[in-house]
Amino acid sequence: MYTYRPVDTFKDEDVHILDREERWFERGVKEAIYVKRKRPSLNRGGDVTWKVKANDRPYHQLPEFKKKVFLCIKKSKYSGNAIKTYKYNVITFLPLNLYEQFKRVANIYFLALLILQIIPEISTLPWYTTLIPLVIVLGITAIKDLVDDLARHRMDNEINNRKCEVLLNGRFQEAKWREIQVGDVVRLKKNDFIPADLLLLSSSNPNSLCYVETAELDGETNLKFRMGLRVTDERLQEDHQLADFNALIECEEPNNRLDKFTGMMLWDRERYPLELDNMLLRGCKIRNTDWCHGLVIFAGGDTKIMKNGGKTRFKRTKIDELMNYMVYTIFALLILVSAGLAIGHTYWYEAIGTKAWYLFDGKTQTPGYRGFLSFWGYIIVLNTMVPISLYVSVEVIRLGQSKFINWDLQMYFAEKDTPAKARTTTLNEQLGQIQYVFSDKTGTLTQNIMQFKKCTIAGRSYGTEEKAAPVDWSWNRYADKKFQFMDHSLVALVRSKKDKDAMEFFKLLSLCHTVMVEHKDGDLIYQAASPDEGALVTAARNFGYVFLSRTQDTMTIREMDQEMTYEMLALLDFNSDRKRMSIILKFPDGRIRLYCKGADTVIYERLSPNSKHKETTQTALDIFANETLRTLCLCYKDISAEEFEAWSRRHKEAQVTMNDREAALDAVYEQIENNLMLIGATAIEDKLQDGVPETIAKLAKADIKIWVLTGDKKETAENIGYSCSLLTDDMEIHYGEDVNEKLTRRQASRRDDPQAYRRGKKKTAEPFFPGSNKNALIITGGWLIDFVDMACECEAVICCRVTPKQKANVVSLVKKYKKAVTLSIGDGANDVNMIKTADIGVGISGQEGMQAVMSSDYAFAQFRYLQRLLLVHGRWSYIRMCKFLRFFFFKNFAFTLVHFWYSFFSGYSSQITFEDWFITLYNLAYSSLPVLLVGLLDQDVNDRLSLKFPKLYIPGQQGTLFNYKNFFISLFHGIFVSLIIFFIPYGAFLQTMGQDGEAPSDYQSFAVVAASSLIFIVNLQISLDTSYWTFVNCFAVLGSIAIYFGVMFDIHSAGIHVIFPSVFTFTGVSSNALRQPYLWLTIILTVGISLLPVICIQFLSKTIWPSVGDKVRPLPVQRQACRRSRRSAYAFSHAQGYADLIASGRSFRRHSPPPDAPLCTNFAEILKRKKLTENDRRYEV
């Protein structure tokens, strides 16, 4: 029984099951069956409640189709065809956007602070010190959201105002898409977009075939075909016939299943089954069809494409989670510090404040109440410990890092004009922490350009003559000139027409498929659902068995020089569970034969005991698999007319059932696909992509474990593993059969020693594979339950014969039990589940369409770009974000805690140390730009060295650059600097006399000196932490200091004080204080004492405890020192030298030196290797 739920109630695992990627191949051509007997009502039991009446708009407004929307207000459950993807309108933008922004805890926190600052008894800071930063942050975010939503508005209006022809009042009239309703009949023409989910009624093509392009729906550009029912094709060609059409459609409720539709049409007391092949889905485009008619079944938000527009699972990085916990920690520290100072104020006021007449403020408040007010005052004063600009700065950095990925020319694939694309801006730093990579094989590691290479027919193998000249196909005018085959004997055998097995072999290839053919300029163009199928039909075409055309009921081929038409009785679909497809044909002489092709594992189970050549074919299959070729077995079965008639009745019953129709059809298919006779097998080559072995080797050196998940057989997957360097000769290979034995032993040991495994105690660390050898695991889909611990001990894992759902399950198991950061990479629809499940999904724009790309977080054209994405962009992004966060927390602690030290000398009275405007502008203007540029541009080593030394990636996996240890180091560093900033000026101001005879030790001069010291310290500190200097960094540091002094002198001027006397109260302070050399000396002393320990620690750490990056950085200098040849020095004195060659590592490509080899090399050898071909350059490090 099917149960239907709204899309937004589906769980992740449900989505995995329902997603369209479970279907590996396009559903084939179906025979439309004219069923002339009554069936029970579809909506019995409440399974199907969606009813559509053709040409009857009032029918859909009946009370039974109303649903409650609010209180007693009801509306039709049938959506209009206007779509709405925008979030805001003129009225709702401000309140809704503010509501969404205040879902963030930090914004609510600062709003609460603003409210507290408005209360006079509590406020210790003017309200604008919080309002201005809050408004700026909210405004920037609101503008970004507004720009995005305006783009959605434009897109919605463009789509809703498209035109099409709708049948109204007996004739077709032009109408906008937004005016279409459920039950309308529409006419579409060639190249029109489909406005709603339509039931195809008729078309200009024979048998109501209609070709559609589904690029907007699933990203695939190859044409698909849909068919109308035979009855509608025959009776609904003219306008008056369409106007009289009054059928009732009963079908499933709207859902997001792009690969499934189940329904029934009731017309003139007859019922006709409906399925996906009868539907034209919104988002597709009509191709190669002059016109077609359709009945609107689902409109607007009920269409399948809109149902698939639901929210994707939000992915967050580890740093995001850690940052949130740290903000919560700061909140806790803020409350504790404020509470302690409030208690201090209570005791101070009781002991001193009540006795000092000059402190009397005319209020009769108790010390306890004053302490309570002081608590809220300190919450306001110390609020900058939680910086409001942190989240905005993080988003700016992530956006910039995403742009750098998009702009990277070294990840641009010129052959297809495909740049790298960061489809998200929230996961960049997670790219620097990947521990496991899960990769598809076909199209990801390989090119997915299939070529028919070898075959075995009746026990004899062909295509093994690799060194022979290619076959000349001039005798075949239909041959594809690009097709190459080396074995002349097979061509001669087929042309002789003497070998019935060879003839049957290629006849099967030309008939058993779902390929569509287009005749264009005298040539045949095949539209195949997969590259494999296209390669097989093309091979049959070149060998003389040319697929020419198909209709709903027939297939026409040319067998050598004779054209033959076969009646198609049934087509048994290919899917990932069946792993085979079959077609039942009626020959011109009346014979009925079933042709079947599929994976050897399922075909051999269904072979007749009398089938010949099973052993020799199996041997050939093993040989083909060892050569990394993709194999399919071909077989046939002759069927008697009586047997087919009985099976056809069961088939028709399964086709019209509404309860689990697919399972019923699979069961019926099993009844006919048995006792098959083996003909032979095909072997198709799928070459590795460029740079795959080098990329896998690099990632392995970075301690990234790579798992390959594929649907291929074990032998093929294993040999691909060796060819791409995933498996090496020094690895011990373990197969899935070993898993059960090892796990059984582990479980037995648990039973023998239950105390060691009692609940809550850590599991034993005993390894599955003792010893120091490298291990690899090759496992099939049936062993994917209890293998995580064992697999994670291996250097490489290959899972073969796995379904799309099993791929996602493998990723989920590793994420759940290993708490590891995972990345999935694939190129096809069957990889979408895996891509969505991983922490980061990468799509490759390959031969299987764009579904993987559309579901991914990052996309590019070649697997080899993954090493640059992780080892360069990922590593840089992680380092930059960690450095940014460490410094951001430090500078805010150093700034805020000065107030804490000042409180000990101000009676814990919530008095601020700095001027109001300095507090307001500190994070906005004085210290933001240098640290922001470090987060955007900094790099410890360049991209070449990042790739040359993959071990640099390991700190990111270990999370050593930003964790609670680093957080507390930043906290204590901030405490130390705040102590220096307060107490050195404090000591300097005690009993001091200026040159003019006046004491400069007033509060305002102290605030200016402390603030100036702070600005110098934080800007010089970020300079010390900057590894990669550019003009922009230098300008930012000097500019921030200049902005501080410029703004300070302006707001301390007499002119602005005259205009706003109550707002700008530090009149003339800066000019008076900073003319005193003594105070400049105090600033220099404060800055020097603050930075000297940092300089010493950095020096010691880089000389005594250098990091991997510190060891790598001096290498270019060492190389230069090795050049002792005078001829080398002469060569390098010229304008165009060879430094780029040496630095890029090109000269070391062919013979990589051992790790302990000297870094210098003979210059003459470099000159010899200078001339590299463009093909070689693709392998540059």
From TrEMBL:
Any one Gene Ontology cellular component term annotated for this protein: trans-Golgi network
Pfam families listed in its UniProt record: Cation_ATPase, E1-E2_ATPase, PhoLip_ATPase_C, PhoLip_ATPase_N
Molecular function (Gene Ontology), one example: ATP binding
Membrane-spanning parts: 102-119, 125-147, 325-349, 369-394, 884-905, 917-937, 967-991, 1003-1022, 1034-1060, 1080-1101
Residues engaged in binding Mg(2+): D440, T442, D827, D831
Coiled-coil ranges (or none): none
Cofactor(s) needed by this chain: Mg(2+)
Biased composition range(s): Basic and acidic residues: 742-756
Catalysis: reaction(s): ATP + H2O + phospholipidSide 1 = ADP + phosphate + phospholipidSide 2
Similarity section: Belongs to the cation transport ATPase (P-type) (TC 3.A.3) family. Type IV subfamily.
Name assigned to this protein: Phospholipid-transporting ATPase
Organism: Oreochromis niloticus (Nile tilapia)
